[in-house]
Amino acid sequence: MKHLGKFVLGMSFLLAVPALATPSQLEDLAERLANQASELAGRSHNGFNERDRGNRADVEVLYLTQEFSSGATLFRQMVLDHRPESELRDAAEVLLVQARNSERYAFARHQWEEMQRDLGEIGRELHLERLPGDDDESRSNDNDGNSHLNGRMHWRGRVKGEAYISVQRGNAAIRIISGDPVKQSSFVFTSPLPQRRISAELKKLKGKGTVELVQQPSRDNDFTAVVQIRDNKGGSDDYEFELLW
């Protein structure tokens, strides 16, 4: 009985001691999101500094990644501070809206999509009934789940300097940033660029300089894809690319 009393007393003591806290799923997600956002902001800043002259899209991406990283870091701290769930829901919604603004640009699409998935999991942890933009039909893409692309546009021209090709519906407009006017330009569509949010792909076919898709079609830019051509190696050159969706 004496030993039984000590056993019962010992068990009572153990039950009275709270279990060591383990990181919650929400804390893990907040930590991962903050780390991903910080890494992306660093990449964006380094890439911007390596350019001799940034364009408007470069500056917008720089600001977006820095703002999102700061917001993700603040959200992580709010989670660690055990702020009310209503505040955490509001903060997650703000971050998700910022992340979806990234869809206007081609920069780091894979990383942005990963962070949006993490935000979706965070929303479920916080019992969000509906995530911002879930009811937006413009987010749908006919390419989802398909192994083929539904349309394309082929462009060619002789470029000296820097030019933007803005693709909207069935037209491709040229804006000269520096250098000479584009010569011998032509384009052909298999079908018009859709008036909804899609994920376009760029395939460079010819040219010694760089050809980049710097803006994806979205509601904010009236569903326009923007391609940047930089011929900074002296002289001029013939360029060709295909935009696929």
Structure description:
- Strands 1, 2, 3, 4, 5 and 6 form a 6-stranded antiparallel sheet that branches.
- Helix content is 41%, strand content 26%.
- It folds into 2 domains: 23-132, Up-down Bundle (de novo design (two linked rop proteins)); 152-244, no CATH class.
- Residues 6-22 and 134-148 have low confidence and may be disordered.
- The chain has helices at residues 2-16, 25-50, 56-80, 85-101, 109-125, and strands at 152-168, 171-189, 201-206, 210-215, 225-231, 237-244.
- The protein is built from 5 helices and 6 strands, in the order H-H-H-H-H-E-E-E-E-E-E.
- 28% of the residues are buried.
- It is an alpha+beta fold.
Which stretches are low in confidence, meaning pLDDT under 50 for 5 or more residues running? 6-22, 134-148
Q: State the order of secondary-structure elements, H for helix, E for strand.
A: HHHHHEEEEEE
- How large is the share of residues in beta strands? 25-35%
Q: Find the count of extended strands (DSSP E, 2+ residues).
A: 6
* Proportion of helical residues: 40-55%
Structural class: alpha+beta
Number of helices: 5
Shape: elongated
**CATH C-level class of the largest domain:** Mainly Alpha
In the CATH hierarchy, the third-tier topology of the largest domain is known as de novo design (two linked rop proteins)
Number of domains: 2
Based on CA atoms alone, the radius of gyration comes out at 25 Å
Largest sheet: 6 strands, antiparallel
Indicate the CATH architecture of the largest domain. Answer: Up-down Bundle
**Distance between the amino and carboxyl termini:** 80 Å
Name the average pLDDT.
82
